[in-house]
Structure formats: structure tokens, C-alpha cells
Amino acid sequence: MTGPVCPRGVFVVGTDTGVGKTLVAAGLARMMRRRGNRVAVFKPFLSGDAAAEDAQILARAAGLAGPGPLQPALLDVIAPFRFRDPVAPGIGARREGCEISLGAVVDDARALGRVSEVMVVEGAGGVLVPLTHTLRASECVIDLVVALGLPVVVVGRTALGTINHTALTMAALRARGVAVAGIVLSQVDPAHEIPDADLLDAIHGVAGMRPLCVIPFVSGSEAIRVGTAARKLDGCGAWDHVEAAIPGAR
Questions:
Q1: What are the residue boundaries of the structural domains of the chain, listed by start?
Q2: What pLDDT, on a 0 to 100 scale, did the predictor assign at position 69?
Q3: Which one from 8, 43, 60, 157 is the annotated catalytic residue?
């Protein structure tokens, strides 16, 4: 079977690790759930997160779980490949003797897509991070993006270096023909300044796309942080950009 794994879906990728992908993915999931959609979340690769916290955040945002640890069966659906060490999934897989087929990951995503109206997929690290035990250039995050056939939202941090990281990520995605729905900047550290117009203009000029919004650092509960992200994403029309970037959209 060919075509996107879900007619209405998005793949959230990062310019690096620790840039706020999970918060943006959860914000998109919560926003679409509040609009009355049946939302599936999928973070197939998870490293160095013994409590599977990222998967739990996504599940709660999509309305699939309440407080407390996820049931093992649900966790295995949302995040099937989990590794102990905080390393690239491919390195984690090799260390733990886990053989991974990207084709099987695509099949899992397609199965989720058949039972949902909206799908939010989150990557691991940057787009050139290896995902399988082979550590091959042909089995990286970007290859999974292409295989799933979903448009992407690129997440970058509000820190020195983000212009270069964002431009390189955009160049890699465009070289593979991936539809980019938008760029979102996330203030993951309160010490990072909120970008001014000059930085946004620079990203526009170098990466070819102006960021849709900036999600500020917010302390407090998970609900407050995810709710803030959802409101920011809703306010900038993020999902409208996703819909416009879906292959075949007019």
C-alpha cells in the first residue's frame, strides 16, 4: 500500500535533540482533540527515558490516558522501540541486540492511521539520526519521514546556532522532497531570549520559511505547558498549514 499512513497527519521533527519536539507534538495533539478529532500519537523510538515520560505526555494530550503510568500494551503501541541509554536509537538498538525494520514501523503507523482521524508522529533527535541497528545513512529519521508520507513541522530551540541548524534541516528535507508545513521555535530554557524580528527574518532569509510561532518557556504542570503550546499553535493556524502541505491538498 502506498500513500500517507494517515490522510490527516503530521510528523514533528527537530533540528537537534532537546529542542521541544514532544511539547509541540503534544500541543498539536491536544489542539486537534479539542476540535473533536480522534487523535493517534506515535513516537516509535524513545531513548534514555526509563519512565517513557514523552510517550505518556503524548498519550494524555491525545486523550488516550489519564494520570499515572501508561498500560504496557498502550505504551508498546505508542512507543514500540525503547532503549535504556540516551543515545541515537540506532546505537541503542545495536547495544541491546535489537534488529529493527523501518518497514515494520511504517506498518505500525499505518495500522494506527486506520483507526484515527488525525495522527501526530514525533521523531528522535535530528533528521539524520540513525534509527536502526545497521547505522546506515538510508535508515535515519528522514527516511522514516519519507516512508510515512506525512508533512513535517520542524522544531528548533531559541538559542545561538538555531539559524544554521534550522537551515540545514530544511535543506535536508527539501532535498528528499518532504513537504514542510512550518517551523516552530521553542524556548526550552528560560535563559534563552525570545527571538526578535531580526532572528525571525534571518531564519526566513536563510531557511526559506518564517517560523509560524515561538512557544515560550512556561514553568508549572504538564497541563499548563501543553496547554500553552496548544494555544500558540492554534493561534498561528499551525494545523491549517499542515492541511495545506498534505500531499494532494489544494
A1: 9-245
A2: 77
A3: 43
Residue 98, SS3? coil
Encoded amino acid at 31, one letter: M
* Location of C-alpha cell 536509537: 89
Catalytic residue check, 21: no
Q: How far is CA 69 from CA 56, 64, 227, 250, in A?
A: 7, 12, 20, 41
> 145-173 burial, b if ≥16 CB within 10 A, otherwise e?
bbebbbbbbbbbbbbeebbebbbbbbebb
E strands, 109-217, where? 118-126, 152-157, 180-186, 213-215
Q: How many Cβ atoms are within 10 Å of 28's Cβ, its own excluded?
A: 29
Q: Tell me the pLDDT tens digit for each residue of 67-111.
A: 777 888 999 999 999 999 999 999 999 999 999 999 999 999 999
Residue 101 CB neighbour total at 10 angstroms: 10
**CATH class for the domain made up of 9-245:** alpha beta
Give CA separation, 193 vs 38, 187, 206, in Å. 36, 8, 20
Cα–Cα nearest to 226, from 14, 9, 59 = 59
Contact 185, 157 (CB under 8 A): yes
* Distance (Å, whole) CA 126 – CA 170: 11
Distance CA 29, CA 108 (A): 19
Which residues sit opposite 41 in a β-bridge?
120
Q: Enter the C-alpha cell of residue 199.
A: 532572528
pTM for this predicted structure: 0.96
